[in-house]
Write a structure and sequence with these properties.
Blueprint: H1 2-18, E1 23-27, H2 40-48, E2 53-57, E3 59-60, E4 66-67, H3 74-78, H4 89-93, H5 112-119, E5 130-134, H6 140-149, E6 156-161, H7 164-172, E7 178-183, H8 186-193, E8 198-199, E9 201-204, H9 216-224, E10 228-232, H10 248-253, H11 260-265, E11 270-273, H12 276-285, E12 297-302, E13 305-310
Parallel strand pairs: 1-2, 1-11, 2-5, 5-6, 6-7, 7-8, 7-9, 9-10, 10-11
Antiparallel strand pairs: 3-4, 12-13
């Protein structure tokens, strides 16, 4: 498996570079209206909109069940003051999401195993999306064991901050799972690459384009070493900047050339967004190859059988 995953990394890099593509990463899927993020519904919606990568947040319950939820968002999601990771799986199963207008829904926090089983499929080379598992870095071993049990290793990308302890813990698993570290300095790039990990790319976080880590020489060195560059255009709040002002808000409210376009011009191969279709249309306007929309038929294998989507 280890050799095949190293080959998988090289295959994906060639796919992006040779096909002149920018991959679109869907932040928590595509959530809007009554469809809630980090649910199978949101991931199906993102696939229908042509995403390449599904970003999924992972938490763990007190009885060691992996679920798809970004802890810290409990108040907005359920009106709950407790962190989801202080609850048992049975307590989590009783929770129901509010939708975007704060109305109750019948949607619940899903076990990661069920979500992955629903999304299991071929690689983006054959029409299906990659899956980035985020926020689960304290549970590497459990996640890796689940991915291997589902035979989904070639579809999964792990991600975490470039923290020495987290990097060491991942290396100690002996896994060759595809991995992307999140870095804020050139030194963190060096640290991440000093471990024997199957690094597919580097997520560069920069508050300002003048940050050292965002300089052309640094970005070119990452790309020249055969790694993909991941830029994060999501806008979490009015304070934090993940990619200067080259974000979704700027792209939509001012002009995409000043947001997503800057990331493209800087050489980013992957852009994470909350606005999949608008980013997709912008990339197409620049002649950049994107995935076909699933407008004819798409099948999602869920825990209770195959769900077929038709246009």
């Amino acid at each position: 498996m280890k050799g095949s995953l190293r080959n998988r990394r090289d295959e994906l890099v060639r796919y992006v570079r040779d096909e002149k593509r920018v991959l679109i990463a869907a932040h928590r899927g595509a959530a809007a209206g009554n469809i809630v993020g980090n649910t199978t519904n949101a991931f199906i919606a993102a696939l229908r909109q042509g995403t390449d990568i599904l970003e999924i947040d992972v938490s763990m319950t007190t009885d060691n069940r992996l679920v798809t939820f970004h802890d810290g968002g409990e108040r907005a999601a359920f009106g709950l003051e407790q962190n989801i990771q202080t609850l048992s799986s049975s307590e989590v199963a009783d929770l129901r999401f509010y939708n975007c207008i704060g109305a109750p829904t019948d949607q619940k926090v899903e076990p990661l195993e069920e979500v992955l089983a629903a999304l299991k499929g071929d690689s983006p080379l054959n029409g299906e999306a990659l899956i980035n598992l985020d926020r689960g870095w304290e549970h590497w071993q459990e996640i890796i064991e689940l991915v291997e049990r589902l035979d989904m290793a070639e579809q999964i990308i792990l991600k975490s901050p470039a923290d020495r302890r987290l990097l060491a813990n991942l290396a100690e698993t002996g896994s060759d799972q595809l991995y992307i570290p999140i870095v804020r300095t050139p030194e963190e790039i060096e640290l991440a690459l000093s471990f024997d990990l199957n690094v597919l790319g580097i997520e560069i976080v920069f508050a300002s384009a003048s940050d050292k880590v965002a300089q052309p020489a640094i970005l070119d060195s990452v790309r020249d070493s055969g790694l993909l560059l991941w830029g994060n255009a999501i806008k979490l709040n009015h304070i934090d900047r993940l990619a200067d002002r080259y974000d979704d808000d700027t792209s939509i409210l001012i002009h995409p050339d000043q947001g997503w376009g800057r990331l493209v011009d800087m050489g980013f191969d992957i852009i994470q967004t909350d606005w999949l279709m608008l980013l997709r249309h912008y990339l197409m306007s620049r002649g950049i190859h994107v995935r076909d929309l699933l407008i004819q038929e798409a099948s999602i294998q869920g825990p209770t059988g195959r769900r077929t989507l038709r246009a």
